[in-house]
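dude i think i finally got it to work??
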Amino acid sequence: MHCEMGVSRSSTVVIAYRMVALHETLREAYDRTKECRAVISPNKGFFAVLVELEKKRNDGKSTMTFDDFYTVVKMKEELTPYIEMGLIDEQQIAEAL
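look at this
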């Protein structure tokens, strides 16, 4: 699956597919998709759809909120200069989370 940048739209479709076809939670689908393509970042609207999809499939419960997602994105943005300097890498960030 690929859109122009492969960041928001296509990642949302892949995450939704994993949730439905592979019976993964939103958190599992997001984390596994992120492992394969580190730059994924569903926009707020798309993320809300994923949360609603999970709630429909999971008795109104979701394993991930937009605040969880936003915290990870914001942390990565703040650490980008250190990544670019080679002081840390994305794998270290993923392991810390």
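The two ends are 26 Å apart (CA to CA).
im so relieved honestly
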